[in-house]
Write a structure and sequence with these properties.
alpha+beta, Chorismate lyase, 6-stranded antiparallel sheet, two-stranded parallel ribbon, 35% strand
């Protein structure tokens, strides 16, 4: 193999690699969800309303116990049985977020063994139990991903993630669920609800 052919192959490989990276970067920037801080709206419905192809894949599902952090947030006794659901959200064939939900098992009794692939959990909660999320309180952090998050979200080296920790409330301002969302930093954008009255 002469130097010319070797150079052309290296150039082609470099071009393909960087074209793929840039294409993915701009696609991720253009496909986002606009949210209002501490206001609940269905992400699945928002994405489908834009005609986007979405998949929700269950990674883990089962029953766990409330630890020291979660029991105080949900206002339940320590070691209360909780339904736990962890899913990967894929938009236009790109993994965009990992979503974890913890909810008192008594609230969803009979729903813990249902298949939640490509379904809205909260739509099912409304349909079966007539329970709705009315509002949320959230903390938003920019953090370094762990190994699992890097792999599931197909992140580049040194890429950070957006970590959203929240509590959803139902009627009478009672805690319904604790949730965590790990996403790439482009997927969620927030509309400011504050105004300046100078």
């Amino acid at each position: 193999m002469n130097c010319q052919v070797c150079f052309e192959e290296k150039w082609e490989n470099w071009y393909i690699k960087w074209y793929s990276i840039l294409r993915r970067y701009y696609m991720k920037k253009d496909l986002f969800v606009l949210r209002e801080y501490n206001h609940y709206a269905s992400i699945t419905n928002a994405l489908r309303g834009r005609g986007l192809k979405i998949e929700n894949k269950v990674i883990e599902q089962g029953v766990t116990e409330a630890n020291y952090t979660i029991y105080s947030l949900l206002d339940v006794p320590l070691a209360t049985k909780l339904f736990y659901l962890k899913r990967l959200r894929i938009v236009e064939n790109e993994p965009r977020s990992i979503e974890k939900v913890y909810i008192d098992l008594d609230e969803v009794k009979g729903m813990e063994d249902l298949n939640y692939d490509n379904k809205s959990f909260h739509a099912e909660l409304h349909r079966i139990k007539h329970i709705d999320k009315l509002h949320t309180r959230e903390e938003i952090l920019l953090v370094e991903p762990n190994k699992e998050e890097k792999e599931l979200l197909a992140l580049e080296e040194d890429e950070e993630i957006l970590l959203i920790k929240g509590i959803a409330y139902k009627e009478n301002d009672r805690p319904l669920e604790y949730y965590e969302i790990s996403s790439d930093t482009y997927f969620y954008r927030y509309r400011s609800l504050s105004s300046y009255n100078g």
